[in-house]
Amino acid sequence: MIYLDNAATTRTAPEVVEAMLPFYTENYGNPSAVYSLGSAGKKAVNEARRTIAAAIGASQEEIYFTAGGTEADNWALKAAAESCRTKGRHIITTKIEHHAILHTCQYLEEKGYEVTYLDVDREGMVKVDKLKAAIRPDTILISVMAANNEIGTLEPVEEIGAIAREKGILFHTDAVQALGQIPLDVEALKVDMLSASAHKLNGPKGVGMLYIRGRTELLPLIHGGAQERRRRAGTENVPGIVGFGAAVRRAMERMEEKAEKERVLRDYLIKRIEEEIPCCRLNGHRERRLPGNVNFSFRFVEGEALVLTLGLKGICASSGSACTSGETDPSHVLRAIGLDDEEAGGSLRMTLSEENTREEIETAADRLKETVQKLREMNYRYKAFLKEMGKSDQ
Ligand code: PLP
User: Fold this and answer.
1) CATH number assigned to the domain with residue range 13-251, chosen from the 4 options 3.40.50.2300, 3.30.499.10, 3.30.300.30, 3.40.640.10
2) Residue 199 labeled ligand binder
3) Cα separation of the two ends of the chain
4) Which overall architecture, per CATH, does domain 254-389 show?
5) Among 12, 54, 82, 328, which is least packed, fewest CB within 10 Å?
């Protein structure tokens, strides 16, 4: 099996699992308990908090653990909207956000908020001047992702942060795909809130965090006990949080080396596809993109058929984002970058990790080439296209 779906999720690193295990078997006490079985958990949670805070240039009191990226995104948007509703009811986001943001924005629209969904260019970049122009006196929140999960484009978060700060507008970034992949510093980015998730960086599933800048007034999303400084109630997922901390420490130690390895493999795969498979288009920005992201559209091919056939050949990839697969609508991200139905429907995302080898990528390129060719041979529009071009597929 060749796993090329690391944007969907990653393999939990063995050292992460090892760090988590004692908190199931030995130190299983409730961190709120006063005896040592509980305080061991509390200590470990706080150590993870310190590690994660240091990784993004925050202080430990600014890190709030959640049950993943979706929860952090929901919290940031719903709570910011509610907390600022006397100041205004206008929110700015983009058309290429994850559904955790977009569906939350739709919910807020039903509650009487107004949302501007910014266009992006052909490469998936948010245009800062358009964002500036969208700001109104009643704008209370801007949410722009750090890196796109489908096409890998890195957004100009730092520039946007500077604008939001100058205007006194809360700024949130969904950094679920960015943490551990590219450097993130909440001071340099001038973000007030940042979401992240452990399972995208070789940590466990179902645990994430929301960074909330020092004095930001933000209501809790979940009410109950006093955990997470009364802002996110519920007994802490101690093993998950410990695993998240271990995963962040591991990712920070190897970030440059890992990114370089992935970039080399990514660029090799892109080159092979562009040289060997006709009628294809690289989606996303060529340079400003996540180190492991390869996203192509192939004309005369159905993305779903491509993914299924590659799956039968032992290659795990996705068409559109994993969270939307099962839905038949073309990806909203590919639509937003201006692809037509055919281009959007014929897309394939392959997201690499440092664990992939050159041989695996060579095999993946070979299998992809033969699969695209096979599927095209069954496509009547491809046959018509060849005829028109004066070629035969025989
Ligand atoms: N935001 C982005 C950009 C993502 O890619 C994902 C997951 O794919 C999420 C949010 C949701 O994170 P989680 O799976 O931890 O809920």
Assistant:
1) 3.40.640.10
2) yes
3) 32
4) Alpha-Beta Complex (3.90)
5) 328
